[in-house]
Fold Transcriptional initiation protein Tat.
Amino acid sequence: MNKIKLQNDANRLNDDSDFSKIVDSGLSRRRFMQGGAAAMGLFLAANPLAQAIAAAAQPASQLLGFTALPVSTSDEFIVPKGYIAKPLISWGDPILKGAPAFDESGTQTSAAQAGQFGDNTDGMSLFPLSANRALLAVNNEYTNYLLLFAHQGKELTADDVKKAQAAHGVSVFEVERKADGHWHYLKDSTYNRRITANTEMQITGVAAGHPLLQTKADPSGKKVLGTFNNCANGETPWGTYLTCEENFNGYFAAPGTEMDKHQKRYGLKADKNKYQWYKFDQRFDMSQEPNEPHRHGWVVEIDPMDPTSTPKKRTALGRFKHENAAVTLADNGHVVVYLGDDERGEHLYKFVSKNRYNPDNKAANRDLLEEGTLFVARFDAQEGELKGNGEWLELTHGKNGLTAENGFADQATIQIYAREAATIVGATTMDRPEWVAVHPNNQTVCCTLTNNKNRGKKDNQPVTGPNPRAENKYGQIVRWKPANADHTSNTFDWDLFLVAGNPTVHSDLYAGSANITDENMFNSPDGLGFDKAGRLWVLTDGKYSNEGDYAGMGNNQMLCADPDTGEIRRFATGPIACEITGLTFSPDQRSMFVGIQHPGEKNAPSHFPAGGNSKPRSTIMVVQREDGGIIGA
Ligand code: FEO
Ligand code: CA
Ligand code: CA
């Protein structure tokens, strides 16, 4: 009965058979009812019906053509039978002329690191130069002092701080598919570039020059040094790279002071600071430069084709802990960018450009991200439903309570304190929105909600709608379709494409949705991307203890899903203590570039990728098929 009702509701809501099919096949309403009840403290016994639904047969996928992998706890990157994976570049490999080779002693200087591939590879995009040559632009999210320094961060010097800053940012380098069929990076290509925490950048858009962005070093409020904690990414139809600043707060300190409400909302801390940059670089000391943190937490646009170009921070896209920037063109020509803010109980945003894309004049599109409207999502649902509709709430000065009386003197203040503006307009608090991906052939959009231990424990984080589990350990993927299939429309229908869980440990909603089985289970979906055929690739950044709630899940991994049937297969497994993040394809879809970040974190026993007794190093892998075929097919 429940299933029939759900199907009918879905047809009424969406008038789209594919979308409604998933609403039905993806999730058992029964499991939701259990999860909701558990959240209210009514702990229900295991329900055999939920188990039966979990084991229900799924239609065979036409999109997925590979043999699924088992879980792994080994120190390797494993791909399916018939596939090969080779390292392309690792942290510390030289990319600029004159840069030395990586030396694992941890004694190389800041100058050496500034010419080498940065640490902790994350989001990346490929910009083709020809059929077999391309530029790869890659984020280097953060650095691990245990590995970066021989002293493991215990005796930090001024040059060490410069070295750590040089291990951050973005690396751009040329890659070539050579006669052997494999991709290699080209050291010394004139395109190669390092962008670090000290590269000069321009602040653009409505907040540029605002008093909140002015510092002693930059009274103009329009020039800033560097980008850091660059998490995921985006790419524009006009050929630029977007790098997204995430946990910028962790680099600032102001010992002995009190944080104000704005600083608190953005996670800035007076005394706790693992990077210690403020001891040697005054702009990271908030008691000296209270406005410097306002100059970070933005999306930065980079022209990868011009290594002398000045990166531009785009204040129109709002300031928060950005995950990625999923760019799409609406049919009416406006550029739409979907943006997650990765923090427990923060929000999901959308930017719509003021001007339209001009397909005939590439240069005319260069500043489309300069001006537009920012929105934030409110998800609505009937009690006990795992689908519903929603609205994009406009973050424009003078509307929706965003007035001077409520603390927003002007539009720039709304952009700078976007999180606080989102609260005023009534945005839904989410389970850590990570990557957003837009389907290439229809207008559905997915976002990973990675996990949220606070759900149900804080008043502003109720257990409902797209966040249906208290103390959510496993994460889920929410999916929406804009009204009239128009990305600029203000309303949408949503459902949950998957709810991750462990059906071998739980039999309620924590077992996961019907498309999660003991064969494909995982936790904490994070990276996300569609390929050209519409396969949905899911990369995990979760717990790898392989015990308790995570028993049978092994190391972090990569899954591939068919959005039409809901089927999910495990495509790759990572080495010890890594997360898998960063994904891009060659235009022919026959090579996949995927990042292995922080293998061996917290001194876990990884020696990836070189093996033996070597230091673990974040590495980009290239995956190809032995028969040269399309990845995943
Ligand atoms: Fe850098 Fe939210 O991951
Ligand atoms: Ca992430
Ligand atoms: Ca994550």
